[in-house]
Amino acid sequence: MGKLRALLSLTYAQKLSLVAAIPLVVAVAAIAVMVAYESRATAEREIKALERRLIEAKKEELRNYVTQARNGFAYIYGRASPDDKVAQNLVTQILSAMIYGKDGFFFVYDYDGNNLVSPRQTEFINQNWEGLTDSEGVPVVDEFIRLARQGAGWHSFMWQKPSTGEEAMMIAYVVGLQDWRWAVGTGVFIDDIVATVANARAEVEARVQRTFLYIGGIVLAAVLIVFASGMLLNIRERRLADAKLKELTKRVIDAQEEERGRVARELHDGISQILVGVRYALDNARRRLSKGDHDGARAPLDKGIDNLGTAITEVRRISRDLRPGVLDDLGLGPALKALTDDFRERTGIETEFSTVVFRNRLDQDSKIALYRIAQEALTNIERHSGASRVTIDLRGHKKGATMRITDNGRGLRSRPGRVSTGIGLRNMQERIEQLDGSLRILSSRGAQSGTVIEVSLPLSHLLPPQEDATPKGKAGS
Questions:
Q1: Which of 1, 110, 212, 278 is the most exposed place for a label (fewest CB within 10 A)?
Q2: Does position 203 have pLDDT exceeding 70, yes or no?
Q3: Span 340-367, mean pLDDT?
Q4: How far apart are CA 234 and CA 436, in angstroms?
Q5: Burial zone of 314 (CB within 10 Å; 0-12 exposed, 13-18 middle, 19+ buried)
C-alpha cells in the first residue's frame, strides 16, 4: 500500500502532464479505434459485394456452359426412350469430350450415385459415390442428386483440382435429366476469387495499420510536446521546492533550538530551583543533626522530601512531553486520555476526552502525528484562547480516522476569507500532509465563539485486523 501511495504521489508537473496527456491519448485512441472499425466495416462490405459479383459472374458462366452442353445433345435426348442405351452412350461421349480450361469438365451421376462421366478424374467412372463428402463434411454426390431431382441448382464444396491435385472451393451447377434419371453438371474453382478477396482484405488491413501509424505519430508528437512543457514546469517547481526545502530546514532547526531552549528553561527554572531547595533543606537538616537537634531536623527533611517528589513529577512531565511512554505501551487513546487529564489538572480548564476503541489499528506515524497535533492544540488553547471547556473526540470509521478538538474560547484572528495561522498551526498542517490527511480549522472571532480543529487520516493508515500489533493484555486506540 505504501508503494502504491508513493507511485501515486506525483509532482505538480507530472500531474499536469498526466492531466493533459491522458485525455489526449484516450480521445485519440478512441478515434483511432472508431476509424479502424468503420474502415474495416466499409471495406468488408465492399469486399463482400465484390465477392458476390465475381461469384455471380462465375455462376452465369457455368449456367451458359450447361445450357450449351444440353443444346449439344438435346436432339439425341429428345428422341430417345428412357432405356435407350445407344442414345445414353452417345451423350456420355459428347459430355466426356467437353473439357475446357485447365480444370473444367462435365460430370454425370445417375440417381443411384454411380458416376457415368468424369473425363479429368477417370478413376471415378463406374463407381458408386453415394454418401461422398468433402474434407469439411459437406455432402457432394447426394446433393447433386437432390438438386437434379428438383430440376437444377447450385452447390459449393471442396474438391481436388485436376491440374494441381490440391483442394479448392468449387461451385457446381447441376440439371436433371428426369427420363434417364441423370444428374448432369459442371463446376468451376473459385480459388482465384478467394485469393482476390484475401488480397483485398490484406490491403484494407495495411491501410488500417498505416492509419494507426499516422495517428500514433501524431499522438507521440503531442505527448512529447506535453511532457516537454511538463519538464519545463518541473524544473520551475524544483527550484521552488528547493527554496521551500531550505526554508523548511531552517524552520526545523529553529524548532529544534526552540524545543531545546524550552527544555533548558524548564530544567533551570523548575527542576534546578527545586533541587537547589532540596540541597538547602538537606544541608539545614545536616547542621541541626550535627548539633544534636533531632527534632529541628525533621522539618527541613520533610520539606526536602516534598521538593524531591515535586522534582520527580516535573521530570516525568518533561519526559512525557518529549516522548510519552503510554503512547507506545497502550496506544493513542490512553495517551490522549493521560494528556487531557494532565491538562485539566494543570490549567483548571474543563477537558473531556471521548473515543471509539478501534484496537490500536493506527500505524505508528499516525499515532505520533495525532498525539502531537492534540498536544499543540492544547498548548495554543492554554496560551491564547481563554477557553473554559475543551473536548477531544477520536474515532475510526469506514473512511479512516478523525480527531476533533473543540473549545469555547475567543477564536483565531482572521483576515477576510482566511484564518490566520501561526507556527503551531503550520506544524499541524505539515504533520497531517505528510500522511496524506486533511486539517480543517473552523473559527470565528468573538467572545465564547470557539474554535474547531478537525484532523482526518485516510483508511490507508489503519492496519488490517490481522496486522493488529496490540500487546496481549493492553488495549487502546
A1: 1
A2: yes
A3: 81
A4: 21
A5: middle
Which three cell numbers, joined as nine digits, stand for 296? 529541628
Rounded CA separation 359/469 (Å): 9
CA distance 274 to 303: 11
Residue 21 Cα distances to 27, 28, 35, 143, angstroms: 10, 10, 21, 61
Write the burial class of residue 174 (CB in 10 Å: 0-12 exposed, 13-18 middle, 19+ buried). buried
Mean pLDDT rounded to a whole number for the chain: 80
- The stretch 93-113 carries a mean pLDDT of 91
Higher pLDDT, 475 or 411: 411
Check residue 430 and give its pLDDT: 80
Residue type present at position 213: L
Cα–Cα dist 175/376, whole Å: 103
The pLDDT of residue 127: 93
- pLDDT for 152 equals 92
| pLDDT tens-digit series, residues 428-477 | 888 788 888 888 888 766 555 788 999 988 877 666 665 444 444 444 45
Distance, in Å, from the CA atom of 88 to the CA atom of 366, rounded to the nearest integer, reads: 104
Q: Which residue has the cell 445407344?
A: 86
The partner residues of 350 in beta bridges, in order of sequence, read 389
In this structure, the number of other CB atoms found within 10 A of the CB of residue 331 comes to 25
Strand order in the sheet with 389-397: 350-355, 389-397, 400-407, 451-458, 438-443
Q: Give the tens place of pLDDT for each residue, 60-79.
A: 888 888 888 888 888 888 88
C-alpha cell at 56: 455471380
Could you tell me the three cell numbers for 321? Answer: 512531553
Question: 104: which strand partners?
Answer: 100
End-to-end CA distance of the chain: 21
Residues in the chain: 477
